[in-house]
Design brief:
The protein is mostly helical and 135 residues long. It is 71% helix and 0% strand.
Length: 135
Amino acid sequence: MVESPPAFGYQHSRMNELSGSIPPRWLPIVLLTCSNCFMTVAWYGHLKFKNSPLWKVILVSWGIAFFEYVLQVPANRWGNAVYSATQLKIIQEVITLCVFVGFAVIYLGERIRWNHVAAFFCIIGAVAFTFLPKD
């Protein structure tokens, strides 16, 4: 019987093979950033089309969200060869907020207030705690 390669080694080598020139630590972050661009448009892009029927908005959003998953699933699978699941989730949330802020300002024309910035720094603090040594 042939043994399958260890999960970490296989995922890590597969990630290197598919990433080209992107270092393994950065590939999940790049993919999650691209994924979040699709997610943000799927979730919030319809807010400029409030007169469109809800069923159409839902179908269009699902279509856009498909591409989010095409990027997010590999990002998490390959990223788990480098980061823990908890670290990936925290990274994802920071990326989500960064992408959303840009989208809200540029596309939706919203203003970011001081309390939004303060909340963002609290989340950055959570990221720092997540990456502290395990001891």
